[in-house]
Write a structure and sequence with these properties.
It contains one helix and 21 strands. The chain starts with a helix and ends with a strand. A hairpin with a 7-residue loop joins strand 5 and strand 6. With about 300 residues, it is mainly beta.
Length: about 300
């Protein structure tokens, strides 16, 4: 009986819908997306339990063009049509088991097609609602900072996931984090790093942002991406300074194991204020590349 009740509770509990937003303009046509401004592309999540199931494509503006909605299940080698449009409006298409969704102009005469793609994920089922998506930002135009503002104080902890790469001229891009727009020297951090068979560590005190891990840079092997998971425990409290931990990894040159990195970070913000905004920055001032994804969750 207990087992049956547990199963019924799981099946009848609400499902949280996760998703990402991609935006861009189309002002040209092309047989493929190699033509500049012929496409707006979305990278679909296939993580088990978090896979994108559908996407809503919204077209706006004044234009004369024919738009093709296409998906790929093999990383972009081949595409299958899931619809088309010649006028402004919204359409929802199925994207399950695919890796890429693209809106491509097969013909173009004039105007600007403003495209918004909103993916939707059947992410977590359960009665506890233990994880809540606050916001996801996917870089469409390279940018040096990403900010999450207006964070509600009604949860216990925060988790920020990052996946992508940077435009720094070297092999890596270093990330930093600031809270509540504080740019003063109010941060401290330490990290341990492993690469190949080498282990090292570093610490910094009274700096203007906390190191939050690294991603591959411009001279890393093409297509390489890194990821980081940032935990902020007790972010809404007002009696203690705020801490974070980061679990981070990335590869710089595929095949050269001395450039394979795994890092763990602990940092502290010298403030007891509740965290209402989080800014992730490229410490060099360069940009995060298009397609780099930042997702903020609340944990209860």
């Amino acid at each position: 009986m207990k087992k049956l009740l547990a199963i019924l509770t799981f099946l009848l509990a609400p499902t949280l819908a996760f998703g990402a937003t991609y935006v861009g303009n189309i002002t040209a046509s092309g047989v493929t997306c190699k033509t500049t401004q012929a496409c707006v592309t979305a990278t679909l999540d296939n993580t088990p339990g978090f896979a994108d199931a559908s996407a809503t494509i919204t077209l706006s503006g004044t234009f004369v063009a024919t738009l093709q909605y296409e998906v790929s299940a093999d990383g972009g080698q081949t595409f299958t049509s899931v619809g088309s449009a010649t006028a402004p409006g919204a359409t929802t298409v199925a994207v399950a088991a695919n890796q890429i969704l693209q809106v491509r102009a097969s013909s173009y005469t004039s105007g600007t097609v403003a495209v918004t793609i909103l993916t939707s994920t059947a992410a977590i089922s359960g009665s506890t609602g233990a994880m809540t998506l606050i916001s996801q930002q996917v870089v469409s135009t390279p940018s040096s900072t990403i900010t999450f503002s207006g964070i509600p104080g009604s949860h216990s902890d925060l988790m920020l996931t990052i996946r992508g790469s940077g435009a720094d001229s070297g092999l890596l891009t270093n990330m930093g984090i600031q809270f509540n727009g504080d740019v003063a020297a109010d941060y401290d951090y330490t990290f341990a790093s492993g690469s190949g068979t080498t282990v090292s560590a570093f610490s910094a005190s009274a700096v203007t942002n906390m190191y939050a891990g690294s991603l591959p840079g411009a001279t890393a092997t093409a297509g390489s991406s890194g990821q980081a998971v940032v935990y902020i425990v007790g972010y809404a409290g007002t009696s203690l300074d705020k801490n974070l931990t980061v679990d981070n990894g990335w590869l710089e040159t595929q095949g050269t194991t001395t450039t394979y990195f795994k890092r763990g970070v602990f940092g502290q913000w010298r403030s007891t204020a509740a965290i209402t905004s989080v800014t992730v920055l490229n410490q060099s001032g360069s940009n995060f590349n298009a397609g780099t994804r930042f997702t903020l969750y609340a944990l209860n």
